[in-house]
Protein: Amine oxidase
Amino acid sequence: MESFECDVVVVGAGLSGLTAAYYLSKKDRGLRVVVLEAKDRIGGRTLTRQLSAADGTKDFFDIGGEWVGRPQPHMHYLLQKFGVNAFNPRTPPQNNEDNLKRNETSWQTRLDLHQLIWKVKSLTKKILSEGVKNSPIALECDALLLSSYMEENLWTQEAKKVVDAACKCMFSLAPSEMSLLYFLMYVKEAGGLDTFLHPEEYTGGECRVKGGVQQLCHHLLQKIGKNFVYLKQPVTDIIQSIEGARVVTGNQMQLLCQRVIMAIPPHHAAGISYQPPMPQTRRGLLQSVPLAFLVKFVITYDEAFWSQKNGKRQYGFQAILSNAGSPVGVVYDATSGRGNPALAGFVSSSVGDDSDPKNRKGVILKLIERHLGPDCYRLLEFSQLDWSQEPYNGGCFLKAIMPGTSSYFNNELREPFDRIHFAGTETATVWCGYMNGAIQSGFRAATEVLYHLRPLIVSSPYPDSLCLEKDRTLKKKNGNKDQPYSKWLFWGLGCVGLLSAVYLITKSSRFSEGGNMTHPSTFVKNIRLVFEAPNFVN
Ligand SMILES: Cc1cc2nc3c(=O)[nH]c(=O)nc-3n(C[C@H](O)[C@H](O)[C@H](O)COP(=O)(O)OP(=O)(O)OC[C@H]3O[C@@H](n4cnc5c(N)ncnc54)[C@H](O)[C@@H]3O)c2cc1C
Structure:
């Protein structure tokens, strides 16, 4: 067995682990930091693939994390740091009828959804950011499934279907698979229902990253130094003693260090053997985070045929391909930053389990055909990834917590276990489950470690301004106003958030009547770079 000594071992080379390692070595070049990654690649739940594109090249498309927005300061920080552009090709069309089946929804359903939103908003206000379990409504909401709450508070079947489908798109889980408290906490941490739901400016679903998100991981890798990141090294054992910690991998590597940062999903952290053993409640918490089923697909085309459906333009196309029960949750325009047309979407929740992976491409295309016609078969390349089968990731987007366990979340998930510190998006205090949360948790865990190893550099275990909530939003000048219920509906039907995402093509005059959004050069002139604001963190 190979044996090395270092100061800090970071387990996991996703956004979170790489950010932690980067921050440690930035703060003190003398610190010996080693990253151990189980897979043969870095990036974790970010993965950018090169696919055949309309302009004859291989263009970049995200098959993992994709959407970012200005209310996400930690993501903003990294994008700026590495000079990576995020683009917002959307100008919300004034007339959206073609995009979504908004008009097919009855006024009763809209009213029903509206009153639910109002109730959720007032409940969210009662959740304390610091210490969820101390919130006045914590116990009550922890005992309830989101689906039970919906049953009690929605009276139209159609509204229930809308929330069910939207939930699957956002969480990749059905409302019956998560507690109400978890749902409320998640919404709260994303800055409230409005920021969370509406894929508009100054929300988490605002932009995509030109050239793909995974490049951020490669930039971080360069800063850390390739020689300090070991691939194919799944950590299996961590033995702590008075002298330090011994980290052992399944590939015969052993590292002796002072501190460990676990930047891996909770259920994988639960799979590691700890000496002395981790307290049962803590391990139980890590294990109580079930896997979500999620397949993401990207299909590239020569032409954005969906923009011309029924002779009408369809900017920012997105759709839920069927009602709850469909194996496909959402499909949206994923035209690249270079203007190469593509569709992307998700097969989400347990209904996806029913479709045979081998036939999935056919099933997906058939469903798209129903909405967009047979042109969908004239594709350049089809790419899919079943994240529930991806080794060392498990289900995605995130893990939900079942009733009875939410009260542990989040404080307990991120509390250090002697020399072991916990990062990973699930431990974030802002944008938990998102890429921003991954980055924030990396900064936070690194700060904790610096406090112990370099008290002269960091005098408090609490993160500096880079990680504080008050820096969370790069605010819109007038603030986010309450959105009318039609916006919620817009979201509900076409789906949203960050994860499902709306995709938009500007409706500038260049694209008006008779224009063709598919020409790459025209498109590129119309995309807007939105992360151009001056640095707001040092
Ligand atoms: C399809 C999809 C779409 C998404 N869309 C969005 C989006 O639009 N916007 C957004 O903000 N977020 C999105 N997300 C979520 C986002 O990608 C994640 O929140 C984020 O990337 C998580 O980063 P992380 O570093 O915390 O964890 P991970 O990326 O999971 O990194 C953990 C790493 O640890 C490694 N590992 C695990 N176990 C071990 C072990 N025992 N030893 C060593 N290494 C180990 C894994 O291989 C992995 O590389 C999406 C996710 C998916 C899957």
